[in-house]
TrEMBL record:
Complex and partners: Interacts with HscA and stimulates its ATPase activity.
Name used for this protein in its record: Co-chaperone protein HscB homolog
Family: Belongs to the HscB family.
SUPFAM superfamilies (UniProt xref): Chaperone J-domain, HSC20 (HSCB), C-terminal oligomerisation domain
SMART domains linked: DnaJ (SM00271)
Organism whose genome encodes this protein: Motiliproteus coralliicola
Length: 179
């Protein structure tokens, strides 16, 4: 296995946003049986190193394709789009306003009569917004048009905001469970 191999080719999956995760897991297990470094324990040092590198590549490929956010970023990178969002921000004012309102709802949920119900409602609202963005992103990732791919990158950034908010909701739920 070439460790620079495209992750979709590695798992013999179509290069698209939607992935059959059961098939991905099945193909991972089959490849892992073949490539696991323990199978190379009695081989030369070079072969052992290659097995470790191949296994690391396989694990990175699995983690990337299992995660919708990482998968979208990977697909964009395959199309030549710089997905390093550390120096880029979302400029959509309506989206940023929505984020502020969602964060206010999160703060309000902590003090609600039934905080778990308030958090559940917030999570449902978040999932609806995420589903819309993911649907747009899936369509955009099929394009090779730079303007469309730029929009896809914007949607990826927005999904990252939602992902962070989801983790914060889970953290608040854990804090409330501990009380």
């Amino acid at each position: 296995m070439a460790i620079e191999q495209n992750y979709f080719i590695l798992f013999e999956l179509p290069q698209q946003y939607q992935v059959d995760t059961a098939l991905l897991s099945e193909r991972y297990r089959a490849l892992q049986k073949t490539l696991h470094p323990d199978r190379y324990a009695h081989k030369s040092e070079r072969e052992q190193l290659q097995a470790v590198q191949a296994s690391a590549h396989l694990n990175e490929a699995l983690a990337t394709l299992k995660s919708p956010l990482r998968r979208a970023a990977y697909l964009l990178s395959l199309k030549g789009v710089d997905t390093d969002v550390s120096h880029q921000t979302v400029s959509d004012g309506a989206f940023l306003m929505q984020q502020m309102m969602l964060r206010e709802q999160l703060d309000d949920a902590r003090h609600a009569d039934d905080p778990f119900e308030a958090l559940e409602e917030l999570l449902e609202q978040l999932q609806g917004s995420e589903a819309e963005l993911q649907q747009s992103l899936e369509s955009q990732l099929q394009s090779d048009d730079p303007a469309v791919l730029s929009d896809a990158l914007d949607n990826l950034r927005k999904l990252q905001f939602f992902d962070k908010l989801r983790h914060e909701i889970e953290r608040v739920e854990d804090e409330l469970d501990d009380l």
